[in-house]
Amino acid sequence: MALTKYRCLPCNHIYDPAEGDPTSGIPAGTAFADLPEDWICPDCGASKADFEPMEE
User: Fold this and answer.
1) HSE of 22 in the Cβ direction (CA atoms, 13 Å)?
2) 8: burial class by Cβ within 10 Å (0-12, 13-18, 19+)?
3) Three-class SS of residue 12?
4) Which residue of 10, 12, 17, 55 has the fewest CB atoms within a 10 Å radius of its CB?
C-alpha cells in the first residue's frame, strides 16, 4: 500500500513519503504522520497543519 502524499495549501508543495524531505533530513519512506511536529514546508515554511492529504 502506497503512503499518502500531502499538499501544502499555501504553496502547493507536495510531500511525497516515498521521497521524504532530504533538505530537512527526513528519510525516504517517512509517513506524513511521522514527521516531527515542528517540521515545516521546505518551500514556504508553512506548518504541518497547512497540509491536506491528496487523493490517490
Assistant:
1) 2
2) buried
3) coil
4) 55
Could you give the count of Cα atoms lying within 13 Å of 48 in the half-sphere of its Cβ?
Answer: 9
Cα–Cα distance, 39 to 56 (Å, whole number): 23
Instruction: Show pLDDT as tens, one digit a residue, over the chain (56 residues).
Output: 578 999 999 999 999 999 999 999 999 999 999 999 999 999 999 999 999 999 86
Rounded distance between C-alpha atoms, residue 6 and residue 48, angstroms: 10
Length of the chain: 56
